[in-house]
Specification:
By secondary structure, the protein is an alpha/beta fold. The chain has 2 domains: 133 residues, D-Maltodextrin-Binding Protein, domain 2, CATH 3.40.190; 89 residues, D-Maltodextrin-Binding Protein, domain 2, CATH 3.40.190. Helix content is 41%, strand content 20%. The chain contains 10 helices and 14 strands. The protein has a 3-stranded parallel sheet with strand order 4-1-5. Helix 3 crosses helix 9. It is globular, with a radius of gyration of 23 Å.
Length: 275
């Protein structure tokens, strides 16, 4: 009698499990709790846009004296979110992990001073640029060997290995040593463990503003500025999001908000190519 009573219960468990598998197999790929549609629709449905950032690269994205996440990229991303009618939700991580998370659809966008390169453009679609920067070679104050990018040949530099700065240094014959963030980069440079580091010109000026006695200087600058934009995953799923972010950037540029944010964080206007 007990064996017969077990059969209906076992049958019910099997049916429930099969129903669950059927729902998983038929999933459209959206996150749990999200409706269908393209990425912009899902972002607006959930009410947040998930933004990946380092949080360690002043003045782009960093923590202030109250440990609040602030910076040019943070306020730009918040402006974009407001234009989309949602809130910006920031997730912090190391540089390489930002793009791994974007690829895996854990993040919607990356806002972290990302420069547009041909290699990155093969993998991601980029918004219109919201900043234009030159690259600086930073050396110790007593370094008299490096005066140009050609002088990097045979030297050692410190940069995050997936960055455009490491690639640029290596293209001139330098050996790039991998680091996690800007603080570690400056530490190696000041300790004399590397000959130079490449970074955004504005990053150097911000660091000197915070550390006026730091024994480092700019040895050379690139002649032309590179474009800083927001990468999104390629595909039909992200096309409306890309267009909406471009509208937001243009609105912030036209209103003067981008210029004001540039002055606030960099001390000059880097929001236009002619600045």
């Amino acid at each position: 009698m007990r064996k017969k009573a077990l059969l209906p219960a076992l049958l019910m468990i099997v049916l429930v499990l099969l129903a669950g598998c059927s729902r998983e197999d038929g999933d459209s790929g959206t996150a749990e709790g999200e409706s269908g549609g393209d990425l912009l629709s899902r972002i607006q449905s959930r009410g947040t846009i998930i933004v990946a950032t380092e949080g360690t690269w002043a003045p782009w994205t960093y923590h202030d004296e109250n440990d609040e996440l602030v910076g040019y990229d943070i306020e730009v991303a918040e402006g974009i979110a407001e234009h989309l009618g949602v809130k910006a939700e920031f997730v912090e991580g190391e540089w390489d992990g930002l793009f791994a998370g974007l690829n895996a659809a854990r993040y919607d966008i990356v806002a972290n001073g990302v420069e547009v390169t041909p290699e990155r453009a093969e993998t991601y679609d980029f918004t219109d640029p919201y900043a234009f920067i030159r690259t600086a070679i930073m050396v110790s104050s007593g370094n008299d060997e490096i005066h140009s990018f050609d002088d990097l040949a045979g030297k050692t530099t410190a940069n995050t290995l997936a960055s455009t700065y490491a690639a640029l240094a290596e293209s001139y014959g330098a050996t790039a040593i991998g680091v996690d963030d800007l603080a570690q980069t400056i530490e190696l440079l000041r300790a004399g463990r590397v000959d130079a580091t490449l970074n955004a010109e504005v990053t150097y000026y911000d660091y000197i503003k915070q550390h006026p006695d730091a024994p480092i200087k700019v040895a050379a600058l690139t002649d032309t500025a590179s474009e800083v934009s927001i990468p999104v995953r390629k595909g039909d799923d992200t096309r409306t999001l890309l267009a909406a972010i471009n509208e937001a950037i243009e609105a912030m540029r036209a209103s003067g908000e981008l210029s004001a944010l540039s002055e606030k964080y960099f001390g000059n206007d880097i929001s236009g190519s002619d600045n």
